[in-house]
């Protein structure tokens, strides 16, 4: 059993490293290389280290670009050339964890597999804050039983804030840095809890997504 767990951890680490390397490559292609082009630093020919690139950008390599701030300003003026606007789909994952402590590796793997920017996780239990999804911020609302609780995890490339409300088993998160801000309402209502969707009405906006585990009957 231990060997299986170690193998899963190694596989997850390899996937995380691959994603990290891809992110570094994107940063180089989208930000660093255009900056170096403006500053007349020939990165590809000289095979400079990243720290050397930053030092040369800071010092400046010609009279027109003597400071990094000047490079950044010129880059911003030409950002349409290097950063064309492109709409991409927003993937939102909902998953009933049934115990974050024993299934966190499975959750992390699933989040990266579906390329989710936002994850709504229910039944996270009391160990919800013992493990993190790399590069995600977590917003949690306590449950009414030890195995309950709901968590909304948002990728750090997005800005998110939690709305503090005293509604049990329900978490409200506003997400920005999108074409339009959205509100995520994540719910875990255990069996036996009285359900009243009217309690949510004052907080539902035009761009609201409600998801979770309602444990509701057909009559409800």
Automatic annotation (TrEMBL):
Superkingdom: Eukaryota
The protein, known as: Endonuclease/exonuclease/phosphatase domain-containing protein
Organism: Rotaria magnacalcarata
